[in-house]
Amino acid sequence: MANRHRGEIEAEIGGKTRTLVLTLGALAELEDAFGAEDLLALSERLATGRLKARDLARIIGAGLRGAGDTLSDEEVGAMTISGGLQASVRIAADLIAATFGEADA
What's the pTM value of the predicted model, to 2 decimals? Predict the structure, then answer.
Protein backbone atom coordinates (compact mmCIF):
# COMPACT_ATOMS: atom_id res chain seq x y z
CA MET A 1 0.00 0.00 0.00
CA ALA A 2 1.31 3.43 -0.96
CA ASN A 3 2.38 5.82 1.78
CA ARG A 4 1.49 9.38 0.70
CA HIS A 5 3.67 10.81 3.50
CA ARG A 6 6.68 9.26 1.75
CA GLY A 7 5.54 10.60 -1.63
CA GLU A 8 4.17 7.28 -2.83
CA ILE A 9 1.07 6.81 -4.93
CA GLU A 10 -0.66 3.77 -6.42
CA ALA A 11 -1.91 3.47 -9.99
CA GLU A 12 -3.20 0.75 -12.27
CA ILE A 13 -0.67 0.41 -15.08
CA GLY A 14 -0.44 -2.52 -17.44
CA GLY A 15 -3.29 -4.28 -15.67
CA LYS A 16 -1.55 -4.25 -12.28
CA THR A 17 -1.75 -1.94 -9.30
CA ARG A 18 1.72 -0.47 -8.94
CA THR A 19 3.44 1.85 -6.49
CA LEU A 20 5.24 4.95 -7.79
CA VAL A 21 7.56 7.32 -5.93
CA LEU A 22 10.00 10.00 -7.04
CA THR A 23 13.09 9.22 -5.00
CA LEU A 24 16.16 11.45 -5.20
CA GLY A 25 17.52 9.15 -7.90
CA ALA A 26 14.26 9.36 -9.86
CA LEU A 27 14.27 13.16 -9.50
CA ALA A 28 17.88 13.30 -10.75
CA GLU A 29 16.80 11.19 -13.72
CA LEU A 30 14.00 13.68 -14.48
CA GLU A 31 16.36 16.66 -14.05
CA ASP A 32 18.54 15.13 -16.77
CA ALA A 33 15.61 14.22 -19.01
CA PHE A 34 14.11 17.72 -18.84
CA GLY A 35 17.41 19.60 -18.84
CA ALA A 36 16.61 21.17 -15.46
CA GLU A 37 19.53 22.71 -13.56
CA ASP A 38 18.10 21.90 -10.12
CA LEU A 39 14.99 20.74 -8.27
CA LEU A 40 13.42 24.19 -8.33
CA ALA A 41 13.78 24.35 -12.12
CA LEU A 42 12.34 20.84 -12.41
CA SER A 43 9.41 21.75 -10.17
CA GLU A 44 8.73 24.89 -12.20
CA ARG A 45 8.93 22.93 -15.46
CA LEU A 46 6.48 20.31 -14.23
CA ALA A 47 4.14 22.94 -12.77
CA THR A 48 3.51 24.45 -16.20
CA GLY A 49 1.21 21.55 -17.00
CA ARG A 50 2.54 21.51 -20.58
CA LEU A 51 3.63 17.93 -21.04
CA LYS A 52 4.25 15.77 -24.10
CA ALA A 53 3.23 12.12 -24.15
CA ARG A 54 6.95 11.31 -23.86
CA ASP A 55 7.09 13.47 -20.72
CA LEU A 56 4.25 11.47 -19.17
CA ALA A 57 6.09 8.22 -19.91
CA ARG A 58 9.27 9.68 -18.35
CA ILE A 59 7.51 10.84 -15.19
CA ILE A 60 5.56 7.63 -14.73
CA GLY A 61 8.63 5.52 -15.59
CA ALA A 62 10.81 7.41 -13.10
CA GLY A 63 8.13 6.93 -10.44
CA LEU A 64 7.94 3.21 -11.12
CA ARG A 65 11.71 2.85 -11.03
CA GLY A 66 11.83 4.90 -7.83
CA ALA A 67 9.55 2.26 -6.29
CA GLY A 68 11.84 -0.55 -7.47
CA ASP A 69 10.39 -1.48 -10.86
CA THR A 70 12.75 -2.00 -13.79
CA LEU A 71 10.56 -0.82 -16.67
CA SER A 72 12.10 1.54 -19.22
CA ASP A 73 10.28 4.65 -20.42
CA GLU A 74 9.66 2.87 -23.73
CA GLU A 75 8.07 -0.08 -21.94
CA VAL A 76 5.92 2.27 -19.85
CA GLY A 77 4.84 4.09 -23.00
CA ALA A 78 3.72 0.82 -24.56
CA MET A 79 1.64 -0.24 -21.55
CA THR A 80 -2.08 0.33 -21.29
CA ILE A 81 -3.37 2.56 -18.55
CA SER A 82 -7.00 2.11 -17.63
CA GLY A 83 -8.63 5.45 -18.36
CA GLY A 84 -6.27 6.30 -21.21
CA LEU A 85 -4.59 9.66 -21.58
CA GLN A 86 -6.65 11.34 -18.85
CA ALA A 87 -5.56 8.68 -16.37
CA SER A 88 -1.92 9.06 -17.45
CA VAL A 89 -2.10 12.81 -16.81
CA ARG A 90 -3.77 12.20 -13.43
CA ILE A 91 -1.07 9.68 -12.43
CA ALA A 92 1.72 12.13 -13.31
CA ALA A 93 -0.08 14.99 -11.54
CA ASP A 94 -0.69 12.89 -8.42
CA LEU A 95 2.95 11.80 -8.36
CA ILE A 96 4.18 15.38 -8.74
CA ALA A 97 1.77 16.56 -6.03
CA ALA A 98 2.91 13.80 -3.67
CA THR A 99 6.53 14.79 -4.29
CA PHE A 100 6.46 18.59 -4.38
CA GLY A 101 3.29 19.32 -2.43
CA GLU A 102 -0.38 19.53 -3.30
CA ALA A 103 -0.26 23.22 -4.25
CA ASP A 104 2.21 22.54 -7.07
CA ALA A 105 0.08 19.91 -8.83
Answer: 0.91
